Amino acid sequence: MQVVSKDFKYQNLEHYLLDMINSGRFNVGEKLPSLRDVSQKMHVSLATVTHAYMELEKKGVIEARPRSGYYVRQKVAPLPIPDLPEHDVQIGKLSRTQLIQTVLGIVGEKGMLPFGCICADSSVLPHKALARIMNSVLRTHGQDVMSYESIQGNPLLRKQISWRMQEDDCRVTGNDVLITFGAMEALYLALRSTTRPGDNVVIQSPTYFCFLQLLENLGLRAIEVASCPTNGVSPRDLDRAFSRFDVAACILAPNFNNPDGALIPDATKQEIVTLCESNNIPLIEDDVSGDLYCDLEGRPRPLKSFDKIGNIIHCSSFSKTISPGFRVGYMIPGKKMDKALEIKATTNVSCSTPTQLAIGKYLEEGLYDRHLRKLRRRISDQRTHMQQYLPEYFPQGTRATQPKGGGVLWVELPKQIDGTKLFFDVKKHNISIAPGAIFSTSESFTNFIRLSCVGFWNDEMRAGLETIGRLAKEQLGSEY
Amino acid sequence: MQVVSKDFKYQNLEHYLLDMINSGRFNVGEKLPSLRDVSQKMHVSLATVTHAYMELEKKGVIEARPRSGYYVRQKVAPLPIPDLPEHDVQIGKLSRTQLIQTVLGIVGEKGMLPFGCICADSSVLPHKALARIMNSVLRTHGQDVMSYESIQGNPLLRKQISWRMQEDDCRVTGNDVLITFGAMEALYLALRSTTRPGDNVVIQSPTYFCFLQLLENLGLRAIEVASCPTNGVSPRDLDRAFSRFDVAACILAPNFNNPDGALIPDATKQEIVTLCESNNIPLIEDDVSGDLYCDLEGRPRPLKSFDKIGNIIHCSSFSKTISPGFRVGYMIPGKKMDKALEIKATTNVSCSTPTQLAIGKYLEEGLYDRHLRKLRRRISDQRTHMQQYLPEYFPQGTRATQPKGGGVLWVELPKQIDGTKLFFDVKKHNISIAPGAIFSTSESFTNFIRLSCVGFWNDEMRAGLETIGRLAKEQLGSEY
């Protein structure tokens, strides 16, 4: 996919002006600067400014007054945040495997507009740096690259990971890290290390659908606890689940839960860690989106940073930030290290040597933070664009999250709309989205969809968003 | 590790002469050709021939008669093949995890003489070709290498694998292949697709110890059926196990079972395939050593080539032949494809993109067969050397397998010797071996050890073998 640069530029200006208006820098009724002023100040052509003003006029945000100039007509407020569905702690039967497999298949197809894909667009990923490093690794480490790495993983990579975690207030060394094939294997090893078939596992609702599949495959039962887009999971709900059920483990994504983007505040994190400790329930942390914070001063803390006794199994990866295809993830299993190593050895022995070394060297060269800054900016740009177009394109009554990080928006459509039907409808237009139904074992989210921000935006994406909205409206029939 | 070429050369000549004598080309009492004749005929220096004759004289194989020349004094027969231990079909409790982990740790240590390691020595592996190909893949496929591969695996690699299997009489296409992280993951997916915790699984005895660990981790029970070094598994024994127990699956390594090198004859393979079909028991085939045949006209047939209904789950990898560190294996799951894909997706999503592409291109370039010929020759050379030195270095009463392929010798020591003690004793001399006790849940093999032939031989290895023998003799005390 290629960004048409001219297109992209004018959209940035429009976006900038919208921000000015929505943030109150220009008030309703106020006169906007002249086309020539904007052109000179923003270093863009007069044609570009004219185009941007015309687009804003079309949207009804500004209006031209003859022989006077452009004036602010109205603000475009972002959509309200979704309501928390009526939700009690509940136990559910898992059986949405087929829909999930269909979704995964369609999201993976080439040529789809990637509103369903949660991996950063490959144009944003550091493929040139990684190719250079891999080439140097193969030349320098020659025969070693051919051999098994230790079960626990490459020591250089483990050390680099531990240093990053120390910056996030986690007391870990390279010896505490176990390298896995992506965060998915980390989750798998965490559950295999803490549960037996038939056990109950507490998860957020909504939660990443692959976790539901993993639970089903391991013969585990999901106990869903409400996740609130603004505050995450409440310790009170967790406590209730712990008292009502015999719980073997608890999986939480404290930083930008997929799909609702929920961020658990630090004070609540501390409470939850203490609660799990005192109930002797292993707490499995999925932190794959923690590095993708956007409207925050710094990275939100992992639950692991509150862990004093090794009760937390921290899981993460570089799949969302460096490369999904390299399959390099990791876990800090705490007390479960020996068990996790034993299971890892009999599942696939150890991780690939060349990919571990390449990521390890990439971190060692200090390239990661600069790359993350670029990636966060690209994702944030796309999200802002989407938030601005959603009110225009989507049916009245639509709500959407305003996450402070992660790569997804969680969209609540009017009750009558079936998100799964919408998924199949937009697929015919070569657009992928994720239907809300797959993110829970309950029926709470059938009118939800998840839209991804993979760091890529152009007019085709804008038109795609318009199509999704139009098809959603069509479900409402003639009344709209 | 470096092969000292002079050393290596003379040992080859000695080896050649020994072969001539043992095969009856020179009979006991017969005069050997003069040093000068051998030097000219074999294109080696006179010093090399002198050295070889002196070594053979030291071993008592030939004798110098003054002013006449060298005469054959006696043949050195290889050791007899191990007795089949008294062995009934039995059900066992798995609990040798700790010893296995110790063995894996020591085998993986750098600087150990690799009699315990079953991966080809890295000097034999095609690291230069792979580095070149990987570099080209990263340049040509740029961004694609960063993305997820499909769950089933890279299509080019799957097609290449299916073509190789077609040559071995298997009716498969690329669509029947599922790429895995090594054969270990293939076995794991095969068992997860066919069993539930508590189920019974038939395995060979002895069997690869990682299979025992995998069974234990999955909560499965091992039913051991005797493996005979010369004929493999008998259908009668299998039938008996199937009638006595409720069997969920059966794992067999028909071609050069690790550790006893057993090769099941083709007629027996057909019988076994039919037996499993008629009992409706999925047959999991481990074929990682099939390409490493040595004293055979061609590759032995996989069980899969007898499969007409998809009941056989064929598992293999390139870890023993191209690179263990790349972690590229595969399975032909037959009827269990959908189930295996579902479990793969929730265990680690999919295999690494760059390593799959590199191995796929390596096969496409037609480099594999030439490499296999070289690898087989190197392994065979080492095995012949070991078989010739074993009678000299090891205690009387020792027996050893004479496998027609694979990379290991299975050595039965006199009953009084404890293979596990020997493992710890030789470790102090920086030598790794595998103790027999870990290859079964029974106590049948405590006086056995497994010695690997990884395609590497020099005087250090010879001295290492001598040390193992000496430490074994020491266990027998003063009577020897």
From TrEMBL, chains A, B:
The keyword Lipid metabolism does not apply. CDD domains: AAT_like, WHTH_GntR. SMART domains: HTH_GNTR. It comes from the Bacteria. Residues 7-75 form the HTH gntR-type domain. One of its GO terms (molecular function) is DNA-binding transcription factor activity. Keywords: Aminotransferase, DNA-binding, Pyridoxal phosphate, Transcription, Transcription regulation, Transferase. PANTHER family: HTH-TYPE TRANSCRIPTIONAL REGULATORY PROTEIN GABR (PTHR46577), TRANSCRIPTIONAL REGULATORY PROTEIN (PTHR46577:SF2). In the C-terminal section; belongs to the class-I pyridoxal-phosphate-dependent aminotransferase family. This is DNA-binding transcriptional regulator, MocR family, contains an aminotransferase domain. It comes from Halodesulfovibrio marinisediminis DSM 17456.
